[in-house]
Amino acid sequence: MKNFVILGAGTAGTIMANKLARALPASQWRITVVDRDNDHPYQPGFLFVPFHGYEPQDIVKSRRKTLNPRVNFLEALIERIEPDHNRVHLKNGTVLAYDFLIIATGTQPVPAQNEGMLGPEWHKSVGEFYTLEGCTKLQRQLDRFEGGRLVVHIAEMPIKCPVAPLEFAFLADAYFRAKGLRDKVEIDYVTPLSSAFTKPKTSEVLGDFLDRRRIHLQPDFALARVDQEAKKIVSWDEREVPYDLLVTVPTNMGDPVIAASGIGDELNYVPTDKHTLLSKVAPNIFAIGDATDLPASKAGSVAHFQADVLFANIQSILAGRAPEEKFDGHANCFIETGGGKALLVDFSYDVEPLRGHYPMPLVGPLSLLKETRLNHFGKLMFRWVYWNMLLPARPLPVGHQFSMSGKNAA
Predict the structure, then answer these.
(1) Could you read off the pLDDT of 44-64 as tens digits, one per residue?
(2) Is the backbone of residue 127 left (phi > 0), alpha (psi -120 to 50) or beta?
(3) Nearest residue to 332 (alpha-carbon basis) of 318, 321, 342, 320
(4) Would you call the peptide bond into 250 cis, given omega within 30 degrees of 0 as the criterion?
(5) Residues near 329 by Cβ (< 8 Å), separated by ≥ 6?
(6) Does 176 have pLDDT greater than 80?
(7) Rounded CA gap, 356 and 333, in Å?
(8) 198: pLDDT strictly greater than 80
(9) Residue 109 near residue 130, CB atoms below 8 Å
(10) Angle 368-369-372 (CA atoms, 0-180°, nearest 5)?
């Protein structure tokens, strides 16, 4: 019996486990997935919890129930990976031998990396929405906020779902308008980037949205420290931004097991071939999703597109063929802009977001780089797609490769 071990039962790990469970003969392969707990959150839902769009119980399911019944799920902490010996040590003393390993351990906010962020005001006047605990507590923080300066802040790139902080700022604007408090709330968007977003054309559109919503953009802000006592954030060049409520995205890092195993970069991401998804650690180790060091967006759609490529390459390797360089950095995401509308962007390693229609040329029905109500409904509908189509690895009408079809290249 051969062993396929997957570390992480988030989006990427779950999709891969379910794909492999249907393809590999049960008489020849044991598929084991390891994660620290049995709670699988729908992470795009974190954005809506602070504004009462969802409640926590709406966005969490059992990991076991999202996995194919033939998959062996272990609820345990991972201690270290030993690539030279083809085994994984768990903190409960279990040692898992593997023939092939997929690292899908994701990324997470690490506020301890940012001086002064963790302190007596953490989850009080300083909040975050990248964890279930954080978005739940932020809901109460916003409910109590009656006016003052709200600062939405990114400590460092890369981060999971890079558009989410912008979405939060837009939704905060709409939220305070609905409460009749917008004139009492000043909103600042503070980023280490030189503009609103990483892609120039999208950044131009989103920057205009910030202006029209009276959200003050403060670019090129490299965080040195959070001064909770004085209620301000300070950059390395001594710029200061005061706040009454700071909603921050702390430094994101890969899982500590990557550092403990000595196989990652300085942020604990796994060095990975950007086109084949084979890790650069060992020929029988693959990496996928947020766990990689790829220059691709750390988003659920990317995990989905990567999974299609990785699955095909695993099949090739098992058949004795060379893996193909098929992953092109394809990513797409809805960007909530408030008021029941959203943008949709679709891009790759080499092509930035363009205007047009998606997924079908001419008819869409979704519009690219255009604020529409249908895009908003598309984002809301994606929760059903996530649980019922994406995680079970059922066929979706969206290919993994980026296409110029339906896009305006001008």
Answers:
(1) 999 999 999 999 999 999 999
(2) beta
(3) 342
(4) no
(5) 274, 294, 295, 296, 302, 347, 348, 349, 350, 402
(6) yes
(7) 14
(8) no
(9) yes
(10) 80
Q: Which residue matches tokens 């899982």?
A: 255
Q: Is the dihedral of CA 391, 275, 106, 354 positive or negative?
A: negative
| Pairing label, strands 148-154, 245-249 | parallel
Number of continuous H segments (helices) and E segments (strands) in the chain: 8, 25
What is the distance of C-alpha 346 from the center of its chain? 16
First to last CA, the chain: 55
Neighbouring C-beta atoms of residue 308, cutoff 10 Å = 20
Q: pTM of the full predicted structure? A: 0.96
Cβ burial 202-239 (10 Å sphere, 16+ → b, else e): bbebbbebbeebebebeeebebbebbbeebbbbbeeee
Confidence of residue 234 (pLDDT cuts 50, 70, 90): very high
Q: What angle do CA 287, 292, 298 make, to 5 degrees?
A: 120
Q: Which own/partner pairs from 300-303 qualify as long-range (CB within 8 Å, at least 24 positions apart)? A: 300/11, 300/43, 300/44, 300/161, 300/386, 300/390, 301/330, 301/331, 301/332, 301/333, 302/329, 302/330, 302/331, 303/10, 303/11, 303/12, 303/15
Residue 23, classed as helix, strand or coil, is helix
H or E element: which one contains 307?
Answer: helix 300-318
The helix (run of H) or strand (run of E) holding residue 167 is helix 164-178
The DSSP string of 397-408 is SS-SS---TTEE
Q: Rounded to whole angstroms, what are the CA distances from 109 to 114, 131, 368?
A: 10, 8, 30
Contact between residue 102 and residue 16 where contact means Cβ atoms under 8 Å apart: yes
Q: Which domains does the chain have, with CATH numbers?
A: 2-43+60-109+253-318 (3.50.50.60), 111-251 (3.50.50.60), 331-408 (no CATH)
User: In the block, which residue shows the tokens 């019944």?
Assistant: 69
Which H helix or E strand runs over 326? none
pLDDT at 410: 58
Would you state the structure tokens that stand for residue 145, as one six-digit string? 């906020």
Count of beta carbons in the 10 Å neighbourhood of residue 319? 7
